[in-house]
Design goal:
This protein is mostly helical. It has two domains: about 130 residues, no CATH class; about 150 residues, no CATH class. About 70% of the residues lie in helices and about 5% in strands. It has 15 helices and three strands. It has a three-stranded antiparallel β-sheet, with no helix packed on it. The protein is elongated and about 70 Å long. About 30% of the residues are buried.
Length: about 300
């Protein structure tokens, strides 16, 4: 691996800082959205995740570092500056302004990466750089449609699970359930949209790092949907049974409002057997990468 010059790293960080200063007007609305929203707060962690992925794969990404101005770099910077300029002209705090700002910043960051480390390194870092697109807020219609899908799926599963427990249950409409001593509603908050998006984000990374081929990666990613619905249903039924047989505060206490992380971890654990099944007959990605690196080094030495 060619060593990264501190000067190049400093230049890259300086360019990133300059893009944030240029976009400070609309950027503060994007930052506020990421900080205060309950659904897409993962936005704040995306740059950190990208940096970790680049650091982890630095041996392959920075194998051939180049410096200087190139056409991809110029195009990326131009697109980024134009999008940020457009964002300044849009309604303050609007969804379209935040989308334009996010896309503009990502384009600038990619341009800075190409400038400091070269197009070859940028191609090798395609996946980490593409993950930066998660900085761009997902449009509300898409989020709401996905939320409703999860809400309906969770309610249907809750109905099945209540039936398995043998507790007399009357379902009113899609989301209301009447039990002997409790009535519950599978509300929007029960859809698990926040944990679903976080789980999808983490699954993308796991799939890329652990599986070969987009077909296997797609199936691992797709498995997150039934897993989210399953963990939602288990959570709702568990809290309801706790309220009926132990203490009514199960439906109003901290486990209900702040216990999502526990069930998120359970959902993450559910991915393990799916990943193990998809890896059957699949040689490790690392082994392939290391195996292909030796001939490359030999060729370089021979030249």
């Amino acid at each position: 691996m060619q060593s990264i010059r501190p000067k190049d790293l400093f230049t890259f960080l300086l360019a990133v800082a300059a893009s944030l200063i240029i976009a400070i007007g609309p950027g503060r609305h994007l930052l506020s959205f990421a900080y205060h929203t309950g659904d897409q707060s993962y936005i704040l962690l995306v740059p950190v995740l990208t940096a970790m992925l680049v650091y982890r794969d630095q041996a392959s990404i920075f194998r051939k570092v180049a410096h200087g101005i190139s056409r991809p770099m110029v195009v990326s910077f131009l697109v980024g500056v134009v999008l940020i300029g457009v964002a300044y002209g849009l309604a303050a705090g609007s969804e379209w302004q935040m989308v334009a700002t996010g896309l503009g910043l990502v384009a600038c960051w990619v341009g800075a990466f190409i400038l400091c480390f070269g197009p070859t390194s940028a191609r090798a870092a395609t996946f980490p750089l593409a993950m930066l697109l998660w900085v761009v807020p997902i449009p509300t219609p898409i989020v709401e449609s996905f939320r409703y899908f999860l809400q309906v799926g969770s309610a249907d599963l809750v109905n099945v699970l209540f039936g398995l427990t043998g507790i007399p249950t009357l379902r009113e409409g899609l989301f209301i359930f009447h039990l002997p001593t409790q009535s519950i509603e599978v509300a929007k908050e029960c859809s698990g949209i926040r944990s679903s998006l976080c789980l999808i984000l983490l699954t993308l990374v796991i799939a890329h790092e652990s599986l070969r081929g987009n077909f296997r990666r797609f199936w691992l990613l797709l498995s997150t949907v039934p897993i989210v619905i399953l963990k939602n249903g288990v959570r709702i039924v568990t809290l309801t049974l706790g309220a009926i047989y132990i203490d009514p505060s199960f439906l109003t206490g901290s486990l209900h409002h702040d216990g999502g992380i526990v069930f998120f971890l359970i959902g993450l654990l559910m991915l393990i057997p799916v990943l193990a099944l998809l890896r059957r007959g699949d040689s490790p990605v690392k082994a392939k990468a290391s195996g292909s690196a030796v001939p490359a080094q030999n060729v370089a030495a021979g030249s």
